[in-house]
Amino acid sequence: MNIAMLLDMAADAFGDRTAVVCGDQSLTFAELRGQAQRAARVFQASGAQYVALLDTNGPVIPVAIFGAAYAGVPYVPLNYRLTTAEINELLERVKPAVLVHGAEFVDRLTSTDGLQLLDSEALLALKDDGEEIDGAMVDPESVAVQLFTSGTTGKPKAALLKHENLTSYILGTVEFGAAEETDGVLVTVPPYHVAGIAAVLSSTYACRRMVQIESFEPGLWLETCRTQNCTSGFLVPTMIGRIVDYLDEQGEALNAPSLKAIAYGGGKMPLATIQRAMELFEGVDFTNAYGLTETSSTIVVLTPDDHRMAASSDDPKVRARLGSAGQPTGAIEIEIRDDNGKVVGPNELGMIYVRGGQVAGEYKEQGSQLDSDGWFCTKDLGYFDDEQYLFIDGRADDVIVRGAENISPGEVEDVLREHPAVADVAVAAMPDEEWGEAVAAAVVLKPDSTATVEELQTLVRERLRSSRVPQTIIFKDELPYNDMGKVLRRVIRQEFAALVEAT
Amino acid sequence: MSKITLKAGARVTSAVSDVQVMAIKIPAGEYELTCGGVSMVAAGGTAPEGASIDPADSGETLMGKRYVDEAETVEFLCTKAGAGSLVLDGKPLAVKQAKQLPSSD
User: Fold this and answer.
1) In sequence order, which residues have a C-beta less than 8 Å from that of residue A65 and are 6 or more positions away?
2) What is the pairing mode between strands A50-54 and A75-77?
3) Rounded to whole angstroms, how far apart are CA atoms A318 and A313?
4) Does B48 have pLDDT greater than 90?
5) CB A435 within 8 A of CB A429
6) What is the mean pLDDT of residues A209-221?
7) Positive or negative, the Cα torsion across B99, A208, A288, A192?
8) Is residue A152 scored above 60 in pLDDT?
9) Torsions phi, psi of A430, nearest 5?
10) Does residue A150 carry a pLDDT above 80?
11) Which range (A120-124, A151-155, A445-449, B53-57) has the least confidence?
């Protein structure tokens, strides 16, 4: 099975349905297949080893994904928000390549050696000129998509997702043709993120209309949702936060009667945000999805019923689940292991391991990271509660090792966030002569609010224990985030390290 | 009845209707796979002349459904719908009941 067949099935069964809409452009599933086939013939004729893409959301995204699939060439979407130098470094790693690009990105290229440039508009305007390609011929074990990770340490890794990984995810989690004719999902995640790939594949297999906006802005999101009668949407937690703030500021109601469901993921959801969103989006189903690039997207889901049960429960254990990732989808296996590799019981923190057909766990330069039994170490820490709800405790790399003690930044952040003056906070390690590492916090205060370092330290000392107390607290106007709403802890760590060096 | 060589990824067509299926999971080997009571053929192969659907089989194979044996050791995906139900080595295949998940993308 390969991903081109997902589109073949959708086009066979629901060819006249709208597959994708962006502004005044739209394609039916039959048209999408036709365009992807034409793109594939161009990709094949080019002899390129990769189909790279540098563009914002638009119909060109599904055309390029499926076109590359029909051609049997890996698809590599690039992050257009990177610096010019970073973009060109990544391009060096995929040459010789066809580069599908938006017109506005041409001047970001320092060299076009080894690149065949193909304007997105030109790709969408290709005329029918050849034999149909049999999508079923593409080897399921070949690479469908290569995604560059954000590279928290050193240069970005090239994560490889094979056709069989992606189709395993789709067959395991999506019912073919499950969408109603009137359904439409509002897609705001960037095309270079695994959620952007999953959005295209899931919508296609469900035969659901995909409504794209080029980049996220709360007002535009609401307007598009209303005018396009969207029934669902995927958002990262910061986007939900911005929509909630926007509605509050404007004194506006949601006023989108078609909207039935919101899925979110890609970062930690603050409890206050999801609670407020559930109030404002009355009657809308919320789903939390946890997954990684290396697992072809979602592996754990907190369902709408879970949200409602948790929000309305008097039992603190059930209430806490609003902050969990949910339960495994059933398409994969999950284990929590301790430092010695032993599987731990419920409520015990450990490293999250995952196994299943959708787990790729492979990088181009580093090779497969699966162990001999097929398990992949996510490097995320977490624990299951008594009923298999998974709580994510952050990245193993972010753990602060103070003396012999492991301290999770999330635990300290949760306490600091409870202070009425604190708007945002990130906790990270700071080099320390005595302890090796010490706890440090970067705090953003709410407008017109004040809090002293001593006051915040006392709060942590009272709630946790003295080893958790940040020995340094700095106040900032804002914290650095990536565009998926993940706080860039490494940037904060570097700032703390610089502070130490300066003294 | 004639046997057919199957492995994961193999595509098979009904000899008597539009049905096409793909093997998603199956131990490689020789199998007798029928649709509407007549042996299926490899995709692109030719159906035996004069074959007709078993009138006793009023079943249908449905688009996008996954068909499994009782132990779920084999799994086929229907990529084209049509008349006739699927039978593997004399045992009828059933639609796999997947856990219904809310859309997470």
Assistant:
1) A3, A36, A75, A145, A197, A200, A201
2) parallel
3) 6
4) no
5) no
6) 94
7) positive
8) no
9) -135, 135
10) no
11) A151-155
Q: Which residues of A touch B11 (CB under 8 A)?
A: 136
Question: What residues contact residue A208 under an 8 Å CB cut-off, 6+ apart?
Answer: A178, A179, A183, A184, A185, A202
| DSSP characters over A41-66 | HHHHHHT-SEEEEE--SSTHHHHHHH
Give the count of beta carbons closer than 10 Å to the beta carbon of residue A394. 18
Chain A neighbors of B81, CB-CB under 8 A: 13
Residue A484 clears pLDDT 90, i.e. is over it:
no
Contact A325, A390 (CB under 8 A): yes
Q: Would strands A436-445 and A472-475 be described as parallel, antiparallel, or unpaired?
A: parallel
Q: How far apart are CA A132 and CA A135, in angstroms?
A: 9
Q: Flag whether pLDDT at B100 surpasses 80.
A: no
User: Worst-scoring range by mean pLDDT, A83-97, A119-133, A352-366?
Assistant: A119-133
Residue (of A205, A282, A357) closest to B105 by Cα position:
A205
Check: CB of residue B63 under 8 Å from CB of residue A176: yes
Task: Give strand pairing partners of A160.
Answer: A146
Cβ-based contacts of A1 with chain B (< 8 Å): 9, 22, 24, 77
Contact A1 B103 (CB under 8 A): no
Confidence of residue A367 (pLDDT cuts 50, 70, 90): very high
Residue B95, strand partner residues: B67
**Element holding A417 (H helix, E strand):** helix A409-417
How big is chain A, counted in residues?
503
Average confidence (pLDDT) over A193-222: 96
Which helix (DSSP H) or strand (DSSP E) does residue A237 occupy? helix A237-250
Residues near A89 by beta carbon (within 8 Å), at least 6 away in sequence: A155
Q: CB of A264 within 8 A of CB of A235?
A: yes
Is cis: bond before A328, omega within 30 of 0? no
Q: Which two tokens stand for residue A151?
A: 């590279």
**pLDDT above 70 covers what percent of chain A?**
99
Coil, helix or strand at residue A349: coil
Q: Which pLDDT score, from 0 to 100, does residue A154 have?
A: 63
Q: Which residues contact A1 (CB under 8 A, 6 or more apart)?
A: A140, A163, A164, A167, A168, A171, B9, B22, B24, B77
Q: Tell if the CB–CB gap between B105 and A285 is shorter than 8 Å.
A: no
Q: Is the pLDDT of residue A376 over 70?
A: yes
User: ipTM score here?
Assistant: 0.92
- Facing residue for A261 by CB, picked from B22, B64, B102: B102
CA distance A295 to A160: 10
Phi, psi of A302 (to 5 degrees): -100, 110
> What residues of chain B lie within 8 A of the CB of A263, using their CB?
102-105
Nearest-angstrom CA–CA distance, A338 and A325? 20
**How far is residue A443's CA from residue A363's CA, in Å, rounded to a whole number?**
36
Q: Pairing relation of β-strands A184-187 and A232-235? A: parallel
Q: Which residues are CB-contacts of A165 (< 8 A; sequence separation ≥ 6)?
A: A144, A296, A357, A358, A359, A360
Residue range A64-73, pLDDT digits in tens: 999 999 999 9
* Best residue of A6, A17, A57, A174 to probe chain B, by most B CBs closer than 10 Å: A174
Tell me, what DSSP letter sits at residue A131?
P
- Could you give the CA distance from residue B57 to residue A305 in angstroms, rounded to a whole number? 40
